[in-house]
Amino acid sequence: MANKPYGFFDDSSREFVITNPATPFPWINYLGNEEFFSLISNTAGGYSFYKDAKFRRLTRYRYNGVPMDNGGKYFYINDGGTVWSPGWKPCKTALDSYECRHGMGYTRITGSKNGIEASALFFVPLHTWAEVQKVTLRNLGNEARTVKLFSFVEWCLWNAQTDMENFQRNLSTGEIELEKNDAFTAVYHKTEYRERRNHYAVYSVNVPVDSFDTSRDAFLGAYRDASNPVAIENGKCSNSIASGWYPIASHQLTVDLAAGESKTFVFVLGYCENPQDEKWESKGIINKKPAEAMMDRFATNEAVEAAFADLKKSWDGLLSHYTLESNDEKLNRMVNIWNPYQCMVTFNMSRSASYFESGIGRGMGFRDSNQDLLGFVHQIPERARERIIDIASTQFEDGSCYHQYQPLTKKGNNDIGSGFNDDPLWLILGTTAYIKESGDFSILDEMVPYDNDESKAQTLFHHLKVSLDHVTNNLGPHGLPLIGRADWNDCLNLNCFSNTPGESFQTTENQAGGVAESVFIAGMYAMIGKEYVALCNQIGKEDEAARAQAEVDKMEQNILTHGYDGEWFLRAYDFYGNKIGSNENEEGKIFIESQGFCVMGGVGVETGEAEKALDSVKDRLDTEYGIEAIFNRI
Amino acid sequence: MANKPYGFFDDSSREFVITNPATPFPWINYLGNEEFFSLISNTAGGYSFYKDAKFRRLTRYRYNGVPMDNGGKYFYINDGGTVWSPGWKPCKTALDSYECRHGMGYTRITGSKNGIEASALFFVPLHTWAEVQKVTLRNLGNEARTVKLFSFVEWCLWNAQTDMENFQRNLSTGEIELEKNDAFTAVYHKTEYRERRNHYAVYSVNVPVDSFDTSRDAFLGAYRDASNPVAIENGKCSNSIASGWYPIASHQLTVDLAAGESKTFVFVLGYCENPQDEKWESKGIINKKPAEAMMDRFATNEAVEAAFADLKKSWDGLLSHYTLESNDEKLNRMVNIWNPYQCMVTFNMSRSASYFESGIGRGMGFRDSNQDLLGFVHQIPERARERIIDIASTQFEDGSCYHQYQPLTKKGNNDIGSGFNDDPLWLILGTTAYIKESGDFSILDEMVPYDNDESKAQTLFHHLKVSLDHVTNNLGPHGLPLIGRADWNDCLNLNCFSNTPGESFQTTENQAGGVAESVFIAGMYAMIGKEYVALCNQIGKEDEAARAQAEVDKMEQNILTHGYDGEWFLRAYDFYGNKIGSNENEEGKIFIESQGFCVMGGVGVETGEAEKALDSVKDRLDTEYGIEAIFNRI
Asked: Is the peptide bond before A90 cis (omega within 30 degrees of 0)?
C-alpha cells in the first residue's frame, strides 16, 4: 500500500494502472507473444525487436542512460508553443492528467494538457510483425483548436551490440526510403538491405503528413536530446533523408479539432522480409509489398479495433484454462492474471531481454526454457511442444547441452558453451509436464537433431534417455553427480579457477581433475528420475523403467550416505572434496536448494532425514520475508 | 576561414583556441603519452583509461548518446542558485565568457558568469597514472562572494564493453571507499578489488570537502541527467556511499572569495595497482599508499605548476628534433606543431580510441603501428624500439601476424585474427626507419618471440626475413602476392564470401581455392624489399641481400607482365582471376594505391610504365580537392 500513490491493479480490466509517471523505476510491459516483441515503460520508453533482441533490434535503446529509460516510442504535441508528451517523458512538461494502463499484451498511455487529451494505445496484433500505435487526440474544450502532433523513433542498425560499438561502420551505413501518398506516409529503414539483408523496418502513419524527418541530427538539433527536439520547437520537421549517421523516423501532422472533437491516427512500426529474388521493386528501390499489405491491414480505426479485440479474445482464452476463485483478492489476481501473464512473457523471452538484461548478453536458457514450460504448458501446449523440440535440438549426443541458444537461429551459443550438469534433467521435466497436460505421447517419437545436426537426429525419447544417463555417466567419488561448470546456482563454479580480472568463471576452462559434486543435482535426479520411470512404464518400456529405477535407488542411497550432514542435506563437495553447506563450514552451513529438491525427490522421506532437513530449514533459513537461500548469520 | 567563429590557432603557445563552445561536433584533445590517457572535448566531455580503452576504462562515456558527447569531467558552480559550468556543457547555461585551449598534452577550459571566473586545466603529468585538474575560481568583482563548486565523474566498471551490456552483474558489483582528512578528500572506486583485481581508481581534491556523493542516483536524482543534478540544485551533496548500481564521485566545496581574490584546487583522477600480497590495509580496507603518494605529489599548486612545466618542457624537446621555417605560416604550423603532435597521439593509441572508435572494437593495429612509427621515430627512438619488439612479438613463425593486438596484454587479438597479407612487410619498413634515425643496428639481434611465446623467440632480423618471405611463399597464379583477407584497403576482401547479415567479411573464413592477388602488395614488396636488401648489405649479409634482390627483380617483372594494364598498374586479381582496377572494368578502372606503391618501389621507372601510370593518375584521379582513391566517374 506504500506505493499506492503510483498506481493500482484494476482486476476488472486485467490492467495495472499507473497514475504518476515519475515511478521510482520505469515500470514496463512486454508486448507481443510470437515473433515480434516490444518492451514499453509507463513513459513510452523501450524498444522493439523481431525474434531476437540481439540480432534483430528495430529501435535503439540506451541501457544505463541518463536520464534513465532513454529511447522509446515518443509522441509530442506542440500546442501553440507548449510542448508535451502524453507519457510525460521525454519532455517532462507537467501534465493536467496522466494515466498508463499496462494490460494483457498492450499498454495505453493517456495524458492531457490545456484542454487537449492525447491517448496512445500500443499493442502487437496477433500473427503480426509489427507494433500498432493508435493515437487519439481529443479537444476537451469548447473552442476549436489546432495542434501539431509528432512521432519519433530512432532506428537500431539491427545488431544491438555492434550498434553501440562499431561507429566506423555504423556512421556510414544508415539508409532510409520514404513513401508518401494519400493513404499513408511511411519511413523505411533499409540499412544493409543492399548488402546481405533481406529485411527492413517501416514506421508509418495512415495519413499524409505535413513534414517528416529521418535524420536524428536534423530532428533533434545539435546539443539537444529527445526532451526538446528542435523540429518540435519549430513546429515542423525538415523533411531530412538520412544517409549514414543516425537514421530515425518522425512524422508531423497538423490536427484541427472542433470543440469536443477527437481524431485518431494509426501508426505502424513493422518488420518485413522479402524472398531473395523479390528484394527489389526497381534498381535501389526496395520491394515494399509486405509493408504495404501490413499498413493496409491497419488502415482504419475499425481494423485496428478488430485486431485489438482479437488480442483481448486470445488472452481471455489463455487465462480461462485454469482459474481460481478464493476469498483472497490478491491470490485470485496472482493466479488468474499476473502469474500466467508473467509465465507467458518469460516463455517468450526466457529472460533474454528486460530492463536489466540488455538483450545482447545471452540467448534463451536451456534450463530456463524448460522451467518456463511448466508455468504455461496448460495454456498453449502446441507452442510448448515446439519449444521442447527446439531446446532438445541444441543437445549433444552424450546428453550434455548448450547452456543457452539464440532465438533467431535456434543454434547453441558457443560463447557460454556447455557443462552445466543439471541442464539435461530439465528436458525430462519439461517433456513430462507437456505430456501430462496434453496426453500427447507422440512427441516422444519425434526425430530431433543433436547439436542442430539433422543427420544426428534421434527420437525425443532418446534425448530424454541420454539426459538421464548423462548424470550417472558423470559421477564423482561419492557416487554423486559431478557439478561441471555449475548447477541451478549458476555462480557455484566449484571447478572453475581464474585469476584474470573480468574472465567469466562460467566460461573459463574447468581445472583438470575436478571432482566437485552437486547434492542438488542428485536430488533432482531422484525427483526427475521417478518422472522418467513413470513415463517409461506408461509407454510400455518396463525394462527401461526398471533400469532407471535401480539407478535412482542407488542415487538415493548415495545421497543419504554421503550427501546428508546429520540434520540437513549437504549442498556439494568442492574441487578438493571438501563439504559445502555443512555444519563443518564456518559460513554457508545450509543451503535451500538441496533441501527442496532432495525432499521433492523423496530422499529420506520414509526414513526421517527429509523431515529433519525441513525442520532445519525452518530453524535456520525461515524469516518473516520468506526463506533465505543460505544461512550466513552468526 | 569559414569556421573562424569557433576558434583559431595560437602558434605562439602551440594551442588551438575555441571561443564558442557549441562547435558542430565535439573538438577533442588527447592527454597522456605513456600509460594513462584521457580524451577531452572542448566542453570537458570524454573519458580516461589506463593503457587499454577496452579493459581498463576508468570513467564512463556514452558513444552515440543524445545529447552528443555525454559523460566527462564536469565542474559546476552554484552561485546563489545560478548553476553553470566553465565548459558550458553539461548545464548549457549561457556564459559571459568561454575559452578552451587545446595544447600539447593539456586542455584548459575557462568560463565566467556574473563576475565569477572558473578555469580548469586538465593534463596527465609525465610518468603518472593520473589526470590532474587544476581548478581556479576568481572573483572578478568588487564585492566578496561565496559560491559552491562541484566536481562529477562517473566510474566505468573497468571493462568498457561489459560495462554497457551486463547489468545483471554491473548493478550488483560497484564498490566505493571514502577517505577524508585535513589534506584531501578522496573517493576510491574499488569494484572487483575484493575479487581478482589488484587495481583501483581514485578521484580526489586537495582540501576537505563540505559534502560528497558516490551514488549516481543520489547525485543526479530520478529522471535527471548531468545537466541538472539534484545535488547541485540543492547546493549540497548527500554523502552517499554507493553499493552496486552506479558509482560516481562528486566533491562539493564552499568557496569564499574576497573581491579580486582567486583560489585554486587540485583534483586528481588516478589509477593505482598493488602487489597481490599488499592489496589490503586491513580487512576490507584497500591499501591506499600508492594513491596517497600520488596525491602528495600534487598536493600544492606549486607542485602542479612544476609538473605542468615538465610536461611543456618535454614537448619543447620533442618538437625541437625537426623544425621548419618557411614563409608559409600554415606549413610551419603543420610541420612544427600539429603533425608531430598527431603522430604522437596515433603512436600512443594507434586509433584504438577516439570519438568515433569506441575503444572496445579493436586493439592496436599491426600495420597501423608500424606506419605510425614512421612519423615519430625521430622524436622518441627508444619508444619506437620498444613498440617494434611488441609488434613483432605478435607475429607467427611463418611471417604472418595478428592484424591487431591489445595494448594491455600485448597479445594478438583472436577476434580479428590473421591473414592480411600486406601486414608483415610493414614490420620491415618500421624497423629500417628506426635504424636510419637511430643507427641502432643492435635491435636486429634482439630475441623476439613468435605468437608471444618466448620459447619460439628468434632475432628480430629473423622476423624481418620471414616477413619478406611470407610474400613469396604466398604467390598466386600470376606470380603476384596472394591478398589473403585484404591488403592496405581493409575492405578489399576478395576471397571472403558471406551471405550472413552482420558477419564480418574480414573474419569470415576465406573460401577455399582463392587465388586473389594484390598488385599493391607486389609494389610494396618491390619498395620494401629494396629497403631489406640495403639493410642486409649494411650488416654484411651480402648473400641474403643477393637472394632478396633476385626475388625483388622477379616481382618487378611479374608486375610489369601481369600487373600493368597498358596505362596504369592494376589493383588486383579477384577470386575468379578477373582484373580489378583495369580499363576492362565498368567501374573502378583505376585505383591510387597500386600506382603509388609500384612507383615508390621503382617498378617501371626506367622503362616508362611508372611515368605513364602517374600521368593516368593526373588524368583520372586528380581533383581540386586532392587525389581520389578510385575512378568512378563516367
From this structure: yes
